[in-house]
Amino acid sequence: MTRRAVDRDTNKPLEPPSEFIVKVQDINDNPPEFLHGPYYARVPEMSNVGTSVMQVTATDADDPTYGNSARLVYSILQGQPYFSVEPQTGIIRTALPNMDREARQEYDVVIQAKDMGGHMGGLSGTTEVKITLTDVNDNPPKFTESVYPMSVSEDKVPGEEVGRLKAKDPDLGDNGLVNYRLIDGDGLSMFELSTDSETREAVIKLKKMVDYETKRMYTLKVEGSNPHIDPQFIAWGPYKDEATIKISVKDADEPPVFVAPSYTFEVEENAPEGTPVGRVHAKDTDVANNPVRYMIPRYTDVEQFFSVNAEDGMITTTRPLDREAQLWHNISVSATEIGHHQDTKVRVNIKVKDVNDNSPEFATNNEVLMCETVSPGKVRSCVIETVSAVDKDEMAHRQHFTFSLAPEVAHNHNFSLKDNRDSTASIYVLRKGFSRLTQDVYYLPIEINDNGFPALSSTNTLTIRVCSCDSKDTILSCNVEPYVLPAGLSTGALIAILACIVILLAIVVLFVALRRQKKEPLIVFEEEDIRENIITYDDEGGGEEDTEAFDIATLQNPDGANGFLPRKDIKPELQYPLRPGMGPTAANSVDVDDFIKSRIAEADSDPTAPPYDSIQIYGYEGRGSLAGSLSSLESVTTESDLDYDYLQSWGPRFKKLADLYGTKDCSIDDADDGEDS
Which residues are in the Cadherin domain (predicted)? Predict the structure, then answer.
């Protein structure tokens, strides 16, 4: 700071300005502070003594250059004897060896920072440090039991679970992971082991079906080991454990078992009923060894060709079998213990052995086509056919057929047969000059024999048809030609022509008759053809005063004579008498107006009438009527002052009517002008 001396009275400076430096001496008035507390630290378990955990640092606002006010010293107030702190640096270190996470995982440590070099009178500040021990693989797995007893029923199927076991490892994560495997025992081939991914348990499952009657106890040795081993702690091993599993087999009520998985038998066809086919055998494998009953499920032998003895399992036929109808019969036989419902089925295949019970026959039944020009002297045409045979019986390589003509045609003069000794025969012609007009078809019976045991034969007929051929022996026609008339037309053609002529004449006559009966309609209904139509009747009326042409008495109801007037629209349930003063009167002595009024009054007072108005219309105009004729037919001949031009505005549907009436005067005028001219 700068200062100068001045005269008090005159306020004038007495000397030049002088600079003064004022130094404030610090005192210890600020305690140390940990700005980032509380602190969190992690250190592996089993760490060596002196392993650094973390460093904590405190600050002091006092002047570090003056005295010991800002010189800090660290000490541990809580956390001993597990941890220590370096006084000058504040580094926290482990103080005990082999600190086990499984025994204690977290520690709360309190660190103090004190100024004045830690001497008495100094100020201090504290902070909390939470230290967590992290896991290492320092514990091997351990089974809780040395022997695990388990059991399985003999009726269990492969894949079913037998039991579970687990080795405990207090380590965490991958350090506590345990793998299991079977290492020894007499049940290695019968059981298998897997690991449950969620519970980390060893699961023992059945690999093959066990049999109580064969073996009742199995032993397995299982090993559990850590897959991840820390080399730092490998000397603490081994990191695995073993246990023994004793599996006992429980007896179950099992179905009988056939001694063979399937059976195949043979039986000759046509064997009589009751012929033995073969025997099946099943036994009860349980300790009780109950007797077994046999049966054939009907759905496997629908037609019931076979039966089985319920006690000894002997299968027999129920009827003769035909190999040609069915070669194999595939059935099932079931075995059931007496007193139990469980059964077992076995497949039985029965083959029907062949016997020679079918006669040979032609391989094909086609007709033989032969030319008329065939001649025994021609090499190409002397053999007209080569026949062969088939047999429905089983064809063996040694099967052979022989052919010969039937005795009744053995000496015919048309055809001969030669056995080729290879199960075929050739047909030859013995003459020439065959004609279709003379005979178009020949039937040649041939006898065929087989070499079976016993030998069978049959007679088959060969049909030979005579055909027309060209010079190259190409068949042209094999049908008989019809007889031709001298005029060049056959009888059938003439009949067809006459029939067509008769049908045409009948159609013409029918058409004319229908035309004569057809009548033209009186009224034209076409929409576009609208004009007046005049219908003439040969009956003239006498006018209004004509009482003979129309009798007024017809207006009267004939039922009114008895005093009751029924309605036509309903059927009255009750009949009411006619009111006095309303009796019938003669037509020639009553006024029509009074007559109609009386009828209206009766209708209004009728209680049987429905509750709606009824209109009764009478076609009589009355005496002295001033109404004229309403017909428009006379308007053509009379002069009318009506204007029909408004019909033009009614649209196309009234165009015809507008043309007839709207332009009539012009047409008449034009006609008059023509006549004048």
Answer: 5-34, 35-143, 144-258, 259-362, 362-484
Positive or negative, the CA dihedral 490, 493, 499, 500 is negative
CA atoms of 266 and 268, how far apart (whole Å): 7
Q: Which residues on adjacent β-strands are paired with residue 109?
A: 129
Terminal Cα distance for the chain, rounded: 153
Q: What are the CA-CA distances from residue 573 to residues 227, 562, 567 (Å)? A: 111, 18, 11
Contact 170, 212 (CB under 8 A): no
DSSP state of 607: T
Higher pLDDT residue, 594 or 631?
Answer: 594
How many helices (H) and strands (E) are present in the chain, helices listed first? 5, 36
- Would you say 243 and 148 are in contact if contact means Cβ atoms under 8 Å apart? yes
Report how far residue 68's alpha carbon sits from residue 62's, in angstroms, rounded to the nearest whole number. 9
CB atoms within 10 A of CB 217: 11
Q: Return the bridge partners of 149, or none.
A: 246
State how far the alpha carbon of 431 is from the alpha carbons of 381, 415, 559, in Å.
11, 8, 109
Distance CA 84, CA 91 (A): 8
SS (H, E, C) 373-433: CCCCCCHHHHEEEEEEEECCCCCCCCCCEEEEECHHHCCCCCEEEEECCCCEEEEEECCCC
**pLDDT at site 544:** 52
- For 6-57, the pLDDT digits (tens) are 888 888 888 888 887 877 766 777 899 999 889 999 999 999 999 999 999 9
The alpha carbon of residue 27 and the mean position of all alpha carbons in its chain are separated, in whole angstroms, by 96
Structure tokens at 141: 């797995």
CA nearest to 100, candidates 152, 44, 143: 44
What is the number of other CB atoms lying within 10 angstroms of the CB of residue 128?
Answer: 16
Bond preceding residue 38 cis, omega within 30 of 0: yes
pTM of the prediction? 0.43
Residue 531 · residue 659 · CB < 8 Å: no
Check whether 550 has a pLDDT greater than 50.
no
Asked whether the beta carbons of 420 and 408 are under 8 A apart, the reply is: no
Say if residue 140 is exposed, middle or buried (CB neighbours under 10 Å; 0-12, 13-18, 19+): buried
Q: Is residue 303 pLDDT above 60, yes or no?
A: yes
| Tokens matching residue 633 | 């037919």
Long-range contacts of 652-659 (CB under 8 A, 24+ apart): 653/527, 656/528, 656/529, 656/530, 656/531, 657/530
Instruction: State the DSSP H helix or E strand holding residue 500, giving kind and residue range, or none if neither.
Output: helix 491-517
Task: Count the neighbouring beta carbons within 10 Å of the beta carbon of residue 58.
Answer: 23
179 has pLDDT over 50: yes
In sequence order, the β-bridge partners of residue 292 are: 337
Which of the four pLDDT bands, split at 50, 70 and 90, describes residue 314?
very high
Tell me the pLDDT of the chain averaged across its residues.
80
Q: How many CB atoms lie within 10 A of CB 537?
A: 5
